[in-house]
Amino acid sequence: MKRVFTILLTFVMLFSIVVTPAFASTPSVSNDEISAVRSEMELRGMPVGGLVVDEVFDSEDTPRYLLGVTDTGYIILERKSLVFHESGEQNPYSAYMSAKKYYGGPLNYYVASTAQVQATNGQKMMYDILRDENTDTVAQALFLEREDGGRSFIGSQTIAVAGAHDGGTQ
Asked: Could you report how far apart the first and last alpha carbons of the chain are, in Å?
């Protein structure tokens, strides 16, 4: 009886252990993408403890970027090419981590959520984090394709929010 109890107790203990992952992410971010973000942060001497990786959308509502966040900094990479865009100590999305995030290049951070998106005169609005205002136009990052296959950020252009239109109802 004692042996059965010991085996049962061992079985329960083995299957009740909760393993906390070292790195978290949204379900749509792959383990390879998490590893790539982690490597880029380490390459730049950034601590990676408590790393969270999330997808960030472009102005056309495509999940084009990866946002890596720790307690001490953030990094933004292009998702497909893993090209570095920016990093720093203050995550611009820190107050909006559960919101759908948009990126239009350096200093152009937007969110769309029930709290920040408003339908006004039939236009879809986004919240511009740095400018602290709702807007129906967002920046779109522009890049120059290099001969080595890489891309260089050259600026941004302002375009209408995806889904925005003149007048009417949505």
From this structure: 69
Q: Please tell me the distance from the alpha carbon of residue 7 to that of residue 2, in angstroms, as a whole number.
A: 9
Which run of H or E residues covers position 2?
Answer: helix 2-16
Q: Tell me, what amino acid is at 135?
A: T
The pTM assigned to this predicted structure is: 0.69
Phi, psi of 158 (to 5 degrees): -100, 130
Q: Which strands sit side by side in the sheet containing 126-128, from one edge to the other?
A: 100-103, 109-112, 126-128, 133-135
- C-alpha torsion 96→103→92→120, nearest 10: -50
Write out pLDDT tens, residues 45-103.
Answer: 999 999 999 999 988 889 999 999 999 999 999 999 998 999 999 999 999 999 999 99
Identify residue 93 by its one-letter amino acid code: Y
Mind giving me the DSSP string for 7-52?
HHHHHHHHHHPPPPPSSEE-TTS-HHHHHHHHHHHHHTT---TT-E
